[in-house]
Amino acid sequence: QEHSLPDLNRRWACCSDFADRAKNHCHAVCLCNLLSYLFPNQRISFSEIHKIVKNGPVFTLRKAKRLFSSCNLPLSAEKLRNYEELKTALSEENPCMLLVANHLCDWHWILALGFAETADGQQFVRIADGWHPDCDRWYAVEKNAEWLAGVIPPP
Q: Fewer Cβ in 10 A, N or C end of the chain?
């Protein structure tokens, strides 16, 4: 089973695009990608986003909520508890920001844009990872993984 959101063939923002003006800024880059996908005719620049969310590391949705409020954006910031909630959101055509951790000191914000499941039960999330300009990247979901945070636009 596989599902991806529509209109993914674009150049996605990368952390390296803004390395000269920001540090630890994957949160701002992920927000930039989310907003440019959801509101393609209402561009909000990285500079505007970064002015509100600032440099990271960012471990909560507090700054995203502040950005949404200050720009009058009809988005909500809610915690995604597990893969099933993410899968439901993506099935409803909602991209989701996820904060994932490789280990205690290695955190990164990614934008979830689809999912795939293999016959043997493996689960993958299609992502714009903030390091590559395309979204032909897949995040392998660990068994019983819990997301640290997630942003779900309302339906």
A: C
